[in-house]
Amino acid sequence: MNGMDDPMNRREVEVKYRLTEASDHERLRHRLAAMGAQPSPVQHEENVLFDSRSGDLRRRLSLLRVRSIDGGSSGTLTFKGPPSSASGVKTREEIEVAIEDAASMQALLEALGFEPGTSYSKQRESWYLDDLEVSLDTASIGYFCEIEGPQSKILALGRRLELSDDQVEAAGYAELFASAKGRPGYGPPSPELVGAVEHASRPGHVQTAAARAVTTV
User: Fold this and answer.
1) Domain ranges of the chain
2) How far apart are CA 62 and CA 175, in angstroms?
3) Contact in structure between 165 and 94 (CB atoms under 8 Å)
4) 125, HSE (Cβ side, Cα atoms, 13 Å)
5) What is the pTM of this model?
6) CATH number for the segment(s) 2-213
7) Mapped to the 3 state alphabet, what secondary structure does the chain carry?
8) Count of beta carbons in the 10 Å neighbourhood of residue 9
9) Structure confidence at residue 104 (pLDDT)
């Protein structure tokens, strides 16, 4: 994200928390709203990772990703370099550019010798508080909260949201989905799960029993 918003700031600094159930997102929504954070509409993201046939990027702990948004043609092309981690906060080089045609970009990468690998989808609901972005993510592999921004503020906001160090997830989504691929339930979020997330994110929403009943795969 940072590389696209500010070409001179090509560092991604974030922490990911693994949550237990959909009600955790509801709790975080209420706390973020009370802090004055501003929400954005829920987005559906389709992601495809690319690498050379010999796996050069994977060996370098790097990735190249094409992401499309809400089933449309537009999206982003992102490169992420090797990560470093301190106190659960992950920092890595990130270069991200907007693209108008994700399918054509994938075809271009394949023509250049890159091969598609891990693919995954998730629902993302982002909240903005000053210079911090909080993402509430829902996928077939579970529920997550990511906080991105200045390193000095990330963990402080996590504590304000009552997120604990025990909930920190060190692995990235590419790793989590790749490791889950052989397990039952791997794949895009179910229609019921997507509907519950979109409904829960509406302003003034009071969570229903059906939404609370959605469980983690």
Assistant:
1) 2-213
2) 11
3) no
4) 25
5) 0.79
6) 2.40.320.10
7) CHHHHCCCCCEEEEEEEECCCHHHHHHHHHHHHHHCCEECCCEEEEEEEEECCCCHHHHCCCEEEEEEECCCCCEEEEEECCCEEECCEEEEEEEEEEECCHHHHHHHHHHCCCEEEEEEEEEEEEEEECCEEEEEEEECCEEEEEEECCHHHHHHHHHHCCCCHHHECCCCHHHHHHHHCCCCCCCCCCHHHHHHHHHHCCCCCCCCHHHHHCCCC
8) 12
9) 97
Read off the tokens for 179.
């490791």
The tokens for 102 are 């994700």
Q: Is the pLDDT score of 9 beyond 70?
A: no
- Judge whether residue 134 has pLDDT over 50: yes
For tokens 């237990």, name the residue.
20
